Amino acid sequence: MIKLADWDELWGEFQQDCKLFVFILLVFCLFRMGFIAVMHSYLGEAVTMADIASALYYGLRISLKSAGLLVLLPLVCCTGLRMFLAWRKVSQLRYYWGVVYVIILSFLFHARIPYYQEFHMAFNQLLFNTLNDDVTAIVHTVTDQYNLPARILLAAATALVLCKLLKRWLTIRPFAFPRYAKWYQNAALRVMLLIVLYHLAIFIRFGGTMTYAYNIDWENSGITKDQLLNEAILDDVQALYRAYELHERVIASTGLNMDPDRLADYGRYLAGSQVNSNNLDDYLRKKVVAGAEAPPRQVFLIIAESYANWPLLPAYKDLNIANGLKEIIAQENAAYVASFLPNGMSTISGVMGVLTGLAEANLYLNYLPESYKEPYATALAPQMKRLGYTADFWYAGPASWEKVRDFTLAQGFDEFHGMGDYDGAGGNVWGCDDYYLYKAVLGRVKDDKPGFHVVLSVSNHSPYTVDLAKEGFDPAVVAAGLSEKMRQDQELIKKLGHFWYADKMLSQFIKDARRQYPDSLFIIVGDHADRVNIEPSPPMYERYAIPFVVYGKGITKESLPESAAGSHINVAPTLLELVAPTGFEYYSVGRSLTRGNDFGMNYGFWITPGYIGKADTEGGEGFLFRQGQLPPSQEKIRQEIDAARAVSWWRIKFGKMLHTVKAI
Predict the structure, then answer these.
(1) Which of 310, 375, 485, 541 has the fewest C-beta atoms under 10 angstroms from its C-beta?
(2) Both 222 and 366 in a single domain?
(3) Does some domain include residue 659?
(4) The domain containing residue 111 runs over which residues?
(5) The pTM is what?
(6) Are residues 403 and 480 in the same domain?
(7) Half-sphere exposure of 584 (CA within 13 A, CB side)
(8) φ and ψ at residue 258, rounded to 5 degrees
């Protein structure tokens, strides 16, 4: 039995662990309030003090779990070891653990702010793609746009102050363990202490409640009506855990039955007919219904960096940053779909969706050996080459970015051109200015044979380095379309100016290319949105939607129905239906917009001609963004999303062959 003196020592050590727990918990709360204060401009107008109080309360509850997790190690190493070791200095480990935690949390807090400004989330699964991206370019971007050295110094200063406070806090003398004259009174007190500790552990484990039924975690913590407050509820430990969980879930395709029998059912849903085959590609085979009698000689598919759809909306016409594309859309030989989603949250996800026709599955196709064995059957370039086109890819950035050169060549392109191939000194770490990219395309594309040309721009990307004044940008024109308060935000005007520049270069290229190649077709689509918005917390449609435009030979306003909706996986079938002859066989997961496809989906959302919603939300409730439309049924939402995701996931992960097929 432990002697009374030993209990005194253990009681003192345990109090020190409790003090560290309280300190870490207060740090979480302090950073939460600091985050809300610094990012207050992102709060919605309808937010009340009651909403902020709710966010702080639920944040405190969820941080009980985070603080408990962090203090668990000092508890074992210090109080636990003191039960067996007489060495008093073992308790000093507690302070050093606390210092490590404080430093990490301080840097995470200062990293969270620019991360939210960029992604509107407090850390997400894109963190796991960082090392796959151009790390040097990312460092330059963060350094230039977000003043990385100053943020590092500020984080270090924050950590230093908190470490000093922690040291003083831990030097406060603990209370002595109560002593009684009777031995059984002391024993009863110790038993009561253990019972209290047991219930306290449950209280912390379930986030301020004693039962799992009222447990709070990252999945159910979004209790306010404001996006910023919901993100503020999650401390950085919880946000990182969420990012990890989402990453793992998508990789494992959680919630979908991936056995071959089920895959055949998904394939039949996509095919719209009774197919029975061991080859998954057979379920993706389609035929052109009403083909082109005289296909265009040159086809340009332009993937425009960060070209969101919201600047094209009437509500933002006074900004005058998308006039070039709006002028093209107004032409009689142009068709436009406003209900369109990107394949993923990043440029590479969008490019993968367009080039392969496979839905986002977070499997990083550009790094998988399967992608380099042979082109996927749904890949766009080989199918265009079957129509007699040559295929080349033009990127404004370096060939090493995301292995884009190796990937495009492996997926059927004949040539790749990167920033090292172009003349001109303009640009930043992500690539050259759009002017030099489009100039190179116009100067090198020959009209001696049919060609398919994919062009990927970068100028509308931070750090924003284009010389706007030299390009003729007038800040006053854009400022006239902003509120009085926003007119003072020079950084916002600079960002909008780069959108203006990208739109100007895009439209000028299309005009010049059409004069140079009269027999041509243009497809214009954004790679993603969710980067720059006028509203700090924009509606879901304005935040995520991108435009899809076809223009040129053989196009009329009726080429794409008003009821059309889709995403990047619908680009390839739409293009093939526009340029291929009747009866031409092709492969795609998505359906052609020309044939009335009215549903789009991606990594986390779905869209129809009038509604948009979250893909994995219970009930699948959608938000109306266009009057006069009916919402899709819950069954359609689930079938469309599950089928596209499952088939794409299996095709990427395991190849084309199914091991067994359910008998019809």
Answers:
(1) 485
(2) no
(3) no
(4) 4-250
(5) 0.83
(6) yes
(7) 24
(8) -95, 20
Query: What H or E segment, with its residue span, contains residue 93?
Result: helix 92-119
Looking at the structure, do residues 178 and 292 belong to the same domain, yes or no? no
pLDDT tens column, 288-340: 999 998 999 999 999 999 999 999 999 999 999 999 999 999 999 999 999 99
Q: Which of 250, 280, 302 is the last residue of a domain?
A: 250
Instruction: Take residue 143 and report the two structure tokens written for it.
Output: 């350094």
- Confirm whether 662 is domain-assigned: no
Helix (H) or strand (E) holding 393: strand 390-395
Q: What is the CATH number of the domain that holds 376?
A: 3.40.720.10
* Dihedral sign (CA 210, 214, 219, 223): negative
**Residue tagged 């499997």 (tokens):** 363
Q: How do residues 616-647 score in pLDDT, each as one tens digit?
A: 776 667 898 989 899 999 999 999 999 999 99
Dihedral, 542, 248, 377, 381 alpha carbons, nearest 10: 50
10 Å CB burial of residue 30 (0-12, 13-18, 19+) is: middle
Token digits of residue 544:
């995520």
Shared domain check, 292 and 156: no
Nearest to 29 by CA among 4, 1, 52: 52
Q: Does 222 lie in the same domain as 119?
A: yes
DSSP state of 429: T
C-alpha span between 106 and 23 (Å, rounded): 13
Helix H or strand E segment including 486: none
Question: What 3-state DSSP class applies to 635?
Answer: helix
> Are residue 497 and residue 404 in the same domain, yes or no?
yes
pLDDT in tens, 549-584: 999 999 999 999 999 999 999 999 999 999 999 999
Tally of domains within the chain: 2
Band (pLDDT 50/70/90 cuts) for residue 663 is very low
Six token digits for residue 315: 């509500």
Name residue, tokens 């074992």: 76
**Alpha-carbon distance 522 to 409, whole Å?**
22
**Same domain membership, residue 175 and residue 40:** yes
Classified as helix, coil or strand, 390 is strand
Closest CA to 427 of 470, 472, 461: 461
Is the residue at 642 inside a domain?
no
Structural Rg of the chain based on CA atoms? 29
Whether 242 and 98 map to the same domain: the answer is yes
Q: Say how far residue 531 (Cα) sits from the centre of its chain.
A: 10
